[in-house]
């Protein structure tokens, strides 16, 4: 079964949800989990004012209470040049998927850990390259692809794919059944609350005749 996970590295509820996704991957190795950067706030010029900091802290505390994930409220990434633009980290994830796809979830978790716990600026291409190097990707190779028009286009395609499927918030888990969208989860949930729905989808998928199903690219979905 193919399960689409729409996320954003700078979405705090997605950071909380990462423990649920980890459990899904561990308990259901037969699930083809496709991670899509859906575009929470791409190209935003939002600065972290005192008001916006309070907004972030409010959500971060809620995520901590629900998920147990830790946050550094010092927000060391804040600077005169920082903007809450989620496109660079989304593009970095897209680059990793093109170079080392089996490590995309590991890279996503590194992005989240670096931003929320260590306070690193993951809108910075140097930081993104350092994190790619940590999972075995040459920094120069990463940087060349990160700045390429191809990766910029593929990142935008992920945002558009999210809109095409009606994804309105992150995190979202869904499947495609004969071209129809089946939402498994919209918003944060713990694994135990999702297990039944995932098991049901797996059972349904096993009944589909071999060779019949859906395939999706960054641009379209076909039966």
UniProtKB/TrEMBL annotation:
What InterPro entries does UniProt report for this protein, alphabetically? Thioredoxin-like_sf (IPR036249)
User: Isomerase: is it a keyword of this entry?
Assistant: yes
* Provenance organism: Chitinophaga pinensis (strain ATCC 43595 / DSM 2588 / LMG 13176 / NBRC 15968 / NCIMB 11800 / UQM 2034)
Q: Would the keyword Isomerase be found if you checked this record's keyword annotation?
A: yes
* Name of protein: Dithiol-disulfide isomerase
Q: What is the lineage of its organism?
A: Bacteria, Pseudomonadati, Bacteroidota, Chitinophagia, Chitinophagales
Q: Which domain of life is it from?
A: Bacteria
Q: Which GO terms describe its molecular function?
A: isomerase activity
Where do transmembrane segments lie in this chain? none
What are the protein's UniProt keywords?
Answer: Isomerase
Q: Which CDD domains match?
A: DsbA_FrnE_like (cd03025)
